[in-house]
Automatic annotation (TrEMBL):
Domain Ionotropic glutamate receptor C-terminal: 241-554
UniProt main location, coarse: membrane
Compositional bias ranges of the Basic and acidic residues kind: 659-672, 681-708
Top-rank taxon, per record: Eukaryota
Topology in the lipid bilayer: Multi-pass membrane protein
Pfam families registered for this protein in UniProt: Lig_chan
Species of provenance: Entomoneis paludosa
Record protein name field: Ionotropic glutamate receptor C-terminal domain-containing protein
One cellular-component annotation, GO: plasma membrane
Signal peptide bounds: 1-27
Location of region: Disordered: 496-534, 601-708
Length: 708
């Protein structure tokens, strides 16, 4: 049959550098002749044995050739497929009486040794599942299986039988694609990936949750209940915030003093005493005891700014202090995803050449990857500090969490979100026309679904975890860990019962119910913190200067605006004083143009007297006397009015006069109120002198009138 699939299969057989021979127990009945027995150890193990053995006459060594690895042990079951297609037998009965030839990988789920064969008491999960499938479907497998051990570290060339140091190392994908081409089934927890699907592998109903997760140490805060913390009141803010707060208090005191100086307040005391008073007001404002009393607009804007700053600082301090004083067992995790770990350059332990390893290399090429040849090796490296995170499979982690070999101090925890959800299970070749191998997968899918629905798979996992558990992390106490370091003794694992089956993976604990995040961290991305570092609870909760920068910037911006407004007000106020002086002098000149001089007024009053004496001669003597008295009174009133008109205005009188003519009454009134006590006393003294001078002039005027 010349098909593209057949050509691809032949190409795969020629290109894979190393493949294993399988050890097969004698088959039953008529199937035995069609199933030859290759050597078990395979090409790689054979080359190692040749190197250390001096017995070159060994028949197994002489018969093992590179071409033997191309032998296929898949059976032709197309006659069964035709019976199902014609409806002669139901699909679920298509494998009855058929001895399947699976390739079993030796691991913790299939316990096998060359000397004893399959473990009689604990064969492993995969053997248990194969036995149950054989019972339900009616096939056999224990008399016709092959086994394969771990991957070799170096590939082997088919053509030369020599180690190829320049070739790529074999991967589990290579093993899978070869195994499905040469056997009826490949029994392992194979990850369902695109590369494997394109290579011709068909995956059955998953029984293993191969989701990729991250595991790391969990660090709880160490609380010493016997000690007294004298500095707990400093914990809400870090050092940078406290230094910036102290600087803000001092700068605010200086700024307020300068703003008040620009507005003309605060005179009558030394600058140092004035600064100390303002520093006190600024300091007590931090706990929201506002005592400033600004009178200018700029000062009031400053008051709004510093009161708002104090409100924000106090609210943040109170909330963070309250959260720190509450005694809760909260674990701070910064790594929330694989992207976080890669960005922080955290070393990752990975199981080499697995699907998880291939995924990390393909999607996270910049990852700091440290490969190991086993899952146990990755967890041991994590305990030894060679890496901070190990990349693990979810289903395996559920068992490892309760095993001393993997989690000896119960201090490991699954962190972050699931890196990738993967379905894992058995596999075979996609073949519907050559040997009809796909029929085997179709039949087993029916029974695997049935085993899931009846709860067999979940019960199987529960039993497996119970057998493998050798430590109860739920009951670990500090007394049990006294021999360890203080840091290790403080680490605890809050283990949770996880779903055992793949189809309950949606019940995985989410980030919300597995842990709490402190406000200062999340931000995970958080302000300069290294994601891979182990943080204490206090450090994770302290507000940093980057987080509080907005509060300080707002206050300094408003404070700067207040200072600018103060300068603008001072400039216009000085300009107003010049206008006031000009209007005062102009007013005096204007009034002088209408009020006559004192001497001119006196002359005018004197010249009127003869005019009144030269009246008509027809008046009687008595009338002349009364008329003379009236003239004398008029002349005296004229002189008094002239003296009052020519009397210079006092400083206070000029100010009041100018205030009536100025348009800006508020500025004039404020200027008047800003005069200090010395100026008022000097003004009063000048007024008294001017009044005395006026009295003397009036007395002189009266004396002149009497003399006349």
């Amino acid at each position: 049959m010349n098909s593209p699939y057949r050509s691809t299969r032949a190409l795969l057989l020629l290109c894979f550098p190393t493949l294993w021979f399988s050890r097969v127990v004698n088959g039953l009945g008529q199937e035995k002749a069609a199933f030859p027995q290759p050597t078990y150890e395979g090409v790689w193990a054979w080359k190692q044995r040749v190197a250390r053995s001096s017995n070159t006459e060994d028949s197994n060594i002489q018969n093992a050739t590179a071409t033997d690895v191309q032998v296929s042990y898949r059976q032709d079951i197309c006659h069964r497929y035709d019976q199902v297609r014609r409806g002669e037998i139901p699909l679920r009965d298509a494998l009855i009486g058929l001895p399947l030839r699976p390739l079993m990988r030796v691991n913790k789920f299939f316990r096998y040794t060359d000397e004893e064969g399959i473990h009689p008491l604990d064969p492993g999960l995969m053997a248990v599942m194969m036995d149950e499938l054989a019972r339900r479907a009616g096939f056999t497998w224990r008399e016709s299986f092959a086994v394969v051990h771990a991957l070799p570290t170096k590939p082997v060339s088919f053509l030369t039988n020599e180690t190829d140091d320049e070739g790529d190392a074999l991967t589990f994908t290579d093993l899978l694609l070869w195994s499905v081409e040469t056997h009826d089934l490949s029994i392992n927890w194979w990850d369902r990936t695109l590369e494997r699907l394109e290579g011709g592998a068909s995956f059955m109903y998953p029984w293993f949750d191969g989701s990729i997760i991250m595991v790391r140490h969990m660090s709880d805060p160490v609380v010493d209940e016997g000690s007294i913390d004298l500095w707990n009141w400093l914990r809400p803010f870090d050092r940078g915030v406290w230094l910036m707060t102290s600087t803000t208090i001092i700068v605010s005191a200086i700024a307020y003093q300068w703003i008040e100086y620009l507005s003309g307040h605060g005179r009558g005391r030394t600058w140092w005493q004035w600064f100390l008073d303002n520093l006190y007001l600024s300091a007590i404002n931090f706990p929201q005891n506002y005592e400033f009393e600004p009178k200018s607009f700029a000062g009031r804007l400053f008051g709004v700014s510093i009161s708002l700053w104090a409100l924000l600082m106090t609210a943040t301090y109170t909330a963070n202090l309250a959260s720190l004083l509450v005694d809760t067992k909260t674990t701070t995790f910064v790594v929330e995803s694989m992207d976080d770990a890669v960005t922080a350059n955290i070393p990752l332990c990975v199981y080499e050449n697995t699907g998880a390893d291939a995924f990390v290399q393909q999607k996270y090429r910049q990852a700091r990857r440290i490969p190991f040849d086993s899952e146990l090796g990755t967890f041991q490296a994590l305990q030894e500090g060679q890496c901070e995170i190990t990349v693990a499979y979810y289903q395996n982690w559920l068992g490892f969490a309760q095993q001393k070999a993997y989690n000896p101090t119960c201090d490991l925890e699954w962190v972050g979100r699931t890196v990738k959800t993967i379905q894992s299970g058995f596999a075979n070749a996609v073949d519907t026309g050559d040997k009809c191998t796909s029929l085997i997968g179709n039949v087993l899918d029916v029974y695997l679904n049935e085993m899931e629905e009846t709860g067999f798979i979940e019960d199987m996992w529960d039993e497996h975890y119970a057998k493998s558990q050798d430590i109860n992390c739920d009951a670990v106490s500090p007394e049990v860990l006294q021999a360890q370091s203080k840091q290790d003794a403080a680490r605890k694992l809050v283990s949770q019962q996880q779903p055992r089956s793949f189809w309950k993976r949606h019940q995985h604990p989410t980030s919300q119910n597995r842990r709490e995040l402190k406000a200062g961290a999340k931000s995970a991305a958080a302000a300069g913190a290294t994601a891979g570092s182990v943080e204490t609870d206090a450090d994770a909760s302290q507000m940093t200067l980057n987080q509080m920068a907005g509060t300080f910037v707002l206050h300094f911006w408003l404070m700067g605006s207040a200072i600018v407004i103060g300068y603008i007000t001072r400039f216009y106020k000085k300009r107003g004083h010049h206008v006031e002086a000009w209007m005062s002098s102009s007013s005096e000149r204007f009034m002088a143009s209408f009020v006559p001089n004192k001497n001119d007024t006196a002359k005018t009053c004197h010249t009127t007297a003869p005019h009144h004496h030269n009246t008509t001669s027809t008046e009687r003597p008595g009338d002349e006397e009364s008329s003379g008295e009236q003239q004398q009174q008029q002349q005296q009133a004229c002189l008094v009015a002239a003296a009052a008109a020519t009397t210079p205005m006092t400083k206070r009188q000029r100010r009041r006069h100018n205030q009536e003519h100025l348009h800006d009454h508020h500025d004039a009134h404020e200027s008047f109120d800003n005069d200090d006590e010395d100026e008022l006393r000097q003004d009063l003294h000048e007024t008294q002198q001017e009044l005395s001078q006026t009295r003397r002039e009036l007395q002189e005027t009266r004396q002149d009138l009497k003399n006349q």
